[in-house]
Design the sequence.
């Protein structure tokens, strides 16, 4: 077998998959905190494999497909398992609990398949169509890690269902979500506001020990939806205005 430089980013991608598998095992064994940190670590490897691929100039369709398969496990199946085991034991025996908990994995796989068939180049995109599956995973695990404990017991199953459904809908939607800016001056000059917001969110997450991650992810989710709605209404208004104007009257010219 011929070893090429593409092996290096693929090793990072496989490390992402290993973290996802380990997170699933940890969740089933009841080590939820370990499972959450393993998914976070998978996210780090997921970001690094793209960086390494660009540095080594080894981006390829094979790498894209491998990355999607690994992401489906680490950011789709693993968060779904976490959701399921977080439900009270009395709820875990109902079929609807499994269906609702599975929604992020189902939506995430659909999101990845749509991304792959629509991929036209290996260049970084400024926007994604639908919330990326790592962002969906971080939304789920950040809620479970910090905020779920603050919810009254009688509302906890419903809160888990709401997080699962909203995250799944965001992933399969056609809403445009910003890509994570690269840490460079070029990225800052290109989109200074987006870069500043992501940087401020990153700093807040570190300072608050991830307590700010779920509010930031909800801001990302809702902010993208609101921007999409504003653009839709504006475009609809522009189309209506152009229709109302009609053709000019030749007798008044």
Sequence:
């Amino acid at each position: 077998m011929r070893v090429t430089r593409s092996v290096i980013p693929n090793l990072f991608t496989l490390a992402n998959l290993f973290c996802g598998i380990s997170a699933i095992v940890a969740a089933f064994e009841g080590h939820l905190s370990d499972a959450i940190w393993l998914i976070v670590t998978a996210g780090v490897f997921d970001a690094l494999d793209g960086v390494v691929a660009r540095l080594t100039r080894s981006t390829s369709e094979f790498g894209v497909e491998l990355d999607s398969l690994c992401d489906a496990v680490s950011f789709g199946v693993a968060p779904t398992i976490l959701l399921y085991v977080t439900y009270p034991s009395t709820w875990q025996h109902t079929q609807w609990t499994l269906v609702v908990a599975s929604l992020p994995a189902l939506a995430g796989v659909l999101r990845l398949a749509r991304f792959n068939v629509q991929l036209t180049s290996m260049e970084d995109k400024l926007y994604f169509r639908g919330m990326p599956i790592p962002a969906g995973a971080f939304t789920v695990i950040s809620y479970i890690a910090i905020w779920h404990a603050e919810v009254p017991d009688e509302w906890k199953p419903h809160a888990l269902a709401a997080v699962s459904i909203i995250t799944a809908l965001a992933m399969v939607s056609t809403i445009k979500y910003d890509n994570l800016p690269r840490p460079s001056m070029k990225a800052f000059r290109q989109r200074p506001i987006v870069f500043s917001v992501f940087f401020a969110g990153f700093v807040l997450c570190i300072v608050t020990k991830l307590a700010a991650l779920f509010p930031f992810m909800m801001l990302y989710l809702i902010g993208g939806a609101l921007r999409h709605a504003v653009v839709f209404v504006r475009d609809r208004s522009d189309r209506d205005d152009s229709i109302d104007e009609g053709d000019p009257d030749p007798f008044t010219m």
About this structure: The CA atoms of residues 44 and 174 lie 26 Å apart.
